[in-house]
Amino acid sequence: MAPNTAPSFRKKALPDPLPLDSGRELAGVEIAFETYGELNVDRSNAILVFHALTGDQFVASEHPVTGKQGWWERMVGPGKPIDTARYYVICANVLGSCMGSTGPASPDADGKPYAKQFPVITIRDMVRAQMRLLDVLGIETLHAVVGGSMGGMQALSCAANFPERTNRVLAIATTARHSAQNIAFHEVGRQAIMADPDWQGGAYYGSNTPDKGLSVARMAAHITYLSEAGLTEKFGRRLQDRDEKSFGFDADFQVESYLRHQGISFTDRFDANSYLYITRAMDYFDLAEEHGGRLANAFRAASDTRFCLVSFDTDWLYTTADMREIVHALNAVAAPVSFVELSAPYGHDSFLLDVPALDRVVKGFIG
What we know:
AB_hydrolase_1; Rossmann fold; single chain; two-stranded antiparallel sheet; Rna Polymerase Sigma Factor, Chain: A; alpha/beta
């Protein structure tokens, strides 16, 4: 009989309140997730895929809102680098997000959405929630954790804080902490949302939503995901096909039209408050600070875990230098680590796009 590789969409309630880094506890947490493939008898073939900031659990299946294919369908599936004919793949919507897991839009004890009353969360909180999900699923140890961008932060956090839960860590296009520039770009996006009159201090549920602000936030962030060479090749300074210039009212340049489309389409599937909370969690992330100020300390208990780190030469958001810092920390505790910088023209988004060399690295490391 052929293995069942079809996706399975589910939601699980965590049985106990979830402790948070803020000192608060969050009761009634639900985690939405999808699974692909079948768990083997000894439960040793599970792989947890962590998604990025604006991603979700629909890693390799059609998105229920947009109708688009999964964000990593080229990587996850039967016979693909993360082979669902061999492995049981889990992808969960992170805590604080808006595709089924508990977040700002979820009902508080009074039945009204949390909105700004939702507690501050961290990357470690997101990982902690997913480790609780594994407990509910009866999975003690993972074959591997995999993630790119914010997903890579979660993969590193899992290794640092729950080293007994995984045998392999694949972290792609990520960092151990945000730079001032990273934080600055996120702050521009947050201010755009909060400057939208429809934000209403976060209490917009049931009324007009701050789509204009969220759209601008997405536009600003999307620029950081691309490379200058990629933008130049795709758009250059080409104008829209019309006779007169608009002096800023309409999109004169093709790149303007592209960014506006990215922003507007994003508002159909994402919650503005979730964007505020998750970007702040990314900005707070600092593995060294969490472990006494020395990055190597974060991985001291994970010295038996195998690591693979991948960067891209055109990624200026999380650079090769950022990732080499992680490699040096792993070397300092003698953790087995391999590292490769791949060449791709797409900037930070290279991990989501057609880069055959990445396929080979992932397949070789996952085994």
